[in-house]
Specification:
By secondary structure, this protein is mainly α. 83% of the residues lie in helices and 0% in strands. The relative contact order is 0.13.
């Protein structure tokens, strides 16, 4: 299951990045040739960038590529390193649960108020879904990363002990 999710995240990021690049390039060409612009492209690019950001955040959690302060953690005994990994995982879970709840509230409000985007007049909740969706996928990834780190530290602790 994780392998499928890994590929979906990566391919979706690549497709969205390609689409953003094409839209931005077309907008530059139109501006250069006509002194006008495709106003909708700016709005679409910004909203798609939010999707790329949350997907990229999930990928970074999976690869454990987020910035971390490991210098002090590595000085601790393995048992304490596991405690720090668990505490970090719990903090991540709390953060993303809160973000998910707030994101759902935001999407519901956008839907109820029938908010639309400025230039494309599309429902805002479609783009707002990036927040709860991103929080959910990052929640899964922070749990996965914490679990793997605790497991690795446990294996290291057994081999050293």
């Amino acid at each position: 299951m994780w392998n499928i999710l890994d590929k979906v995240e990566e391919y979706l990021c690549a497709i969205l990045l390609f689409f953003i690049s094409v839209l931005t390039f077309l907008n530059v060409i139109v501006r250069y040739l006509s002194n006008g612009s495709l106003a909708f492209t700016e709005e679409l690019v910004v909203n798609l960038f939010v999707w790329i950001t949350v997907l990229g955040g999930a990928i970074a959690f999976r690869k454990r590529a987020h910035l971390g302060v490991t210098f002090l953690t590595y000085l601790l005994p393995a048992r304490w390193q596991k405690a720090v990994a668990v505490l970090s995982g719990v903090a991540g879970v709390v953060l993303f649960v809160l973000l998910f709840v707030q994101g759902v509230g935001m999407v519901v409000q956008e839907y109820q108020n029938q908010m639309t985007t400025y230039s494309m007049a599309l429902p805002m909740w479609i783009f707002g879904l990036a927040v709860p969706f991103g929080a959910l996928i990052m929640l899964l990834r922070v749990i996965q990363a914490a679990w793997e780190e605790v497991r690795e530290l446990g294996t290291r602790e057994k081999s050293n002990g």
